Amino acid sequence: MVDTSNIAPITRTAFAAAEAMPDALGRFGRFGGTYAPETLMPAISELIAAYEEAKRDPAFQAEIDELATHYVGRATPLYEAKRFAAEAGGADGPRIFLKREDLAHTGAHKINNALGQALLAKRMGKPRIIAETGAGQHGVATATACALLGLKCIVYMGEVDIQRQSLNVFRMKLLGAEVISVRSGSQTLKDAINEAIRDWVTNVDDTFYIFGTVAGMHPYPMMVRDFQSVIGREARAQVQEQTGSLPDAIVACVGGGSNAMGLFYPFLNDESVEIIGVEAGGHGLESGHHAATLVTGEEGVLHGSWSYVLMDDDGQIVETHSISAGLDYPGVGPELSHMKYTGRARFVSITDEEALDGFKLLCRTEGIIPALESSHAISYAAKLAKEMGSGKTMVINLSGRGDKDMHTVADALGVTL
Amino acid sequence: MTDTATSTSRIGATFERLREEGRTALMPFHTAGFPTLESSKRIIRALIDAGADLVEVGVPFSDPIADGVSVQGTGQIALQNGTRLKDCVELVRQLRTEGITAPLLLMGYYNPILKYGVERFVADCAAAGVDGFIVPDLPIEESAALREACVAHNRDLIFMVAPTSTDDRLVAAAERGTGFLYCVSVTGVTGARDSMSQTLGDYIARVRAHSNLPLAIGFGISKPEHVRQVGELAEGAIVGAALINALNSVADDEKPAKAAEFVRFLRGE
Question: Which of A75, A241, B74, B223 gives the lowest tally of CB atoms within 10 Å of its CB?
């Protein structure tokens, strides 16, 4: 372990007592930490202190709850997908429930975190917000929160993603955000994160970085998890209300991992609940064109934290592929890395083609068009349903709706719109 | 305070000698593998022959979060032409074989070092003649493994401090760092700038109050007057992006000569 006993105090110690994981240095076991440029370290300490203080303030929690209820539309339903279950698992299959984050305002779970962090930024007196986005969902959620709270919003987005997600770029601009095209590296999400970090390093005095997932440097993996864990808290209560017991399995897709940690976190101590994360298998693991970081990656440091990473034999981060831009990321959250390392969760992958099958199946059986990200979880759940048997219960996080993906799906199906 | 590693290191000895001569250390940065590996070796030689006192050899990385466009661009080219971390170590070994005695540091991000293996990396670097390391995404809190290896192999680990660093962080950097302290002149990423910060003097005085290590100032230095200004405050001036911009203004085969010319320009010669 890292010896930090002699380092001068960096106002982090108070936090350790409040939370078992991560520890005071942001570690989830061997994962996590703060691999950040020195210029940011004081700002990170300030953020940790401000978040800890806000978390203890009932007024802050009340503010979040108020917006969650009346603006986001929480609690989102936990819906039993009977026709989907019958088709996927047959007559003897498990009961399958969908946690309907697609019904949250802006159409995905991303708003839970964006609003929480935007409220924190406002509380800290930071008028300028920056964010990164891949598919555009976190960018839209952040632009939405900034419009609501009157904050200036700048979103970094890779040029490649801007091209394939033009609808979300337009949405962000309508919401008053400035979208900056990132042309370095692979011009996708990881490069957008690099550029947002550079902006934060440069404008650290007045700028708050609203990071969109449970990866990155401490305290983001913890903070984003906390803001997203409303998903799991609701689902845990709802499933017991509807079935009388805890589910046997919970399933979520994993890119950086925010919807997954949001669902999983409140179930971590429920040992009977099997936790399954579904990564993007792209063109197949053997093709090398995928984003299955936990399934195939190795330990490394990316974007400020120690986690599983997809890299080459020189430690250079590799470019990933997924049909869903939201899963197209070579890193993953440190807490999910820890869950893989300890075996608390298992991680699998679903190819582009399988995800499309899941997408179509849910459309056809339930009248719900899922996001391509969520379709990975749907597709794996359909496989799992065949093995589980009757009398079992499964909860899938339906993390977003698929409207944004119409062009991609049409392309993949050979349809010209 | 400096520890024994520093007092016996080539970096420590160089700062000591320059102090006696009343000169400011000029420390250019150049990315290994830019524009090619062989050419980067000639450029580094030219920098030293023209009067550079120490050289930071940049290790290319796919995701350089602390670097501006100039340094990013060189790293991308170096990666495209296949430059790996082991090539950077080998580059230093060759420079030593060719008789270069000036301190040579590797500056690069942590993941390639981790992948190489921290202990093996530092051991190989020591054998090759690398004197020290600067790792921009490795703050004091996360540095124990690399620091341990550096102590074992008598290499310097240089920490960066920034205008935003609190006093307690300055103390920690001074206690943990060896060789010199890398004082980032501005809150920002690497890159040439027109003028130095007005508040640089106050910031450097604050660093000085907490450290006995030599201080080198970097980020934004692009002109002879910057080097002079820095010389009044600190023991060393680090120049990266401005040199790259100068090199980018000429064809590849003219880059070594341009590098030498730029060192003389910065020296006011």
Answer: A241
